[in-house]
Amino acid sequence: DGKDSIDGTDVGQWSDIKVVNSVNGPLPIIVYYESTGTSRGNLKFAKGKATAPDGNKSEWEYTTVKNPDGVRDFGRYVSMEMDASGGFHVVCQDAISGVLYYGYFASISESPTGGWKKVDATSSVGRWTDIKLANPTKSGLAAEPVVTYMDGSKLDTTYAVKVAYM
Known about the structure:
The protein is an all-beta fold. Helices cover 0% and strands 55% of the residues.
């Protein structure tokens, strides 16, 4: 996680990566917050077209994810997990309101299956997220996502770390 670049241009922050098996071999899938350019302030997926794509933009397929209604700066502190059916469980933050969201993507698309769900909207939540699946052999919500994250209003206290689960 951190700042990432393509063709020498700083493009992403707060990224997470998984590898999917395909008929062409393993392919990387990256979810990240677009920090510069025309898509600034959006969550994006980048899928490698080869097993070892380099920094050339032509070796990647990009998808900009639709923000939840009314949210302008979305996708910071992103974390992703993949279930047995190849679906992606994603958590990230609405940077302006400090709200933590969850989305399930049956495949890489502009919108999560069933839309974005608010996990926590109390104070300044959603920093430094991590998501795991309690039952990764299932798909969708049946995989039982478990999310850990920081509450920015309670830093330096024993209440700063929060857990949300199904």
